[in-house]
Amino acid sequence: MNETVLTPILDLLDIAGIAIFALSGALVAARERQTFVTMAFFALVTGVGGGTVRDLLIDAPVFWMTDPWVAVVCLGTALIAWFTPMRLWEGKLLDYADALGLAAYAVLGAAKAMAYGIPPVPASLMGIITGCVGGIIRDVVAGRPSIIMQPELYVTAAALSATLTVGGAIAAVLIGVPTQWAWALAFVAGFVLRAAAIHFELGLPSYGRSTPKEEGADPRPAPSSKDHSSG
Q1: What residues make up the domain containing 71?
Q2: Sign of CA dihedral 187, 188, 189, 194
Q3: pLDDT tens digits for range 137-184
């Protein structure tokens, strides 16, 4: 398929995901007391980063190069961040908004990949990439620890939305119901999982550690009496 067919639901998810991620990028720059130009740059790379990587991988036209409204949305969110006091965004409000964007972009990415003829498993991965890469780019550029390096459920929520999008779409075709129902279910499921992780601080167990590491404990195994130093 050479052209992807976007429904109003996917259009809405697209704009919502771009705006939310762009806002999160602008606010990172705001916390660092950066200029408006830097805030606008962070808004753009965060808002379009995941979708850009997705489109390059599935050999689709890069979406924001053909849609003039994407840059406008990113600039608009940067203006919102610039003219609003930082205290309005403190707490977990932005985390929940980011959860909405994560689920929306994961659904959009998987659905668009399927529309371009990508097989189910890679299409699911495209959903994860679309949802997560923008935030990764934001954190790398800002020089801050990325959320994906934490045990907190983040990529898992994107994977849930992307997998349900692909599996639900296949099931919807087989039973003859609109695929929009599958997209809606996938979006809600991913958001609920991410919101639960934020509220209850849910996370996956870390490698080699079944219980939280004690304060100040050395995670390396104790040396054996038979070990020899290498000088």
Answers
A1: 8-200
A2: positive
A3: 999 999 988 888 888 899 999 999 999 999 999 998 888 888 888 899
Helices (H) and strands (E) in the chain, counts: 8, 0
User: Can you say how many angstroms the Cα of residue 78 is from the centroid of all Cα atoms in its chain?
Assistant: 19
Determine the Cα–Cα distance for residues 55 and 3; give it in Å rounded to an integer: 12
User: Looking at the domain assignment, is residue 218 inside a domain?
Assistant: no
List Cβ neighbours of 83 (8 Å cut-off, separation of 6 or more): none
Q: Rounded distance, CA 184 to CA 182, Å? A: 5
Residue corresponding to tokens 């959903």: 127
What sign does the CA torsion over 143, 96, 150, 154 have?
Answer: negative
CB within 8 Å of 3: residues ≥ 6 apart? none
Determine contact, residues 156/144, Cβ cutoff 8 Å.
no
Q: Does residue 213 fall inside a structural domain? A: no
pTM (predicted TM-score): 0.83
Query: For residues 110 and 53, what is the distance between their CA atoms, to the nearest angstrom?
Result: 13
Q: CB neighbours (10 Å) of residue 44?
A: 23
Looking at the structure of the chain, the number of domains it has is 1
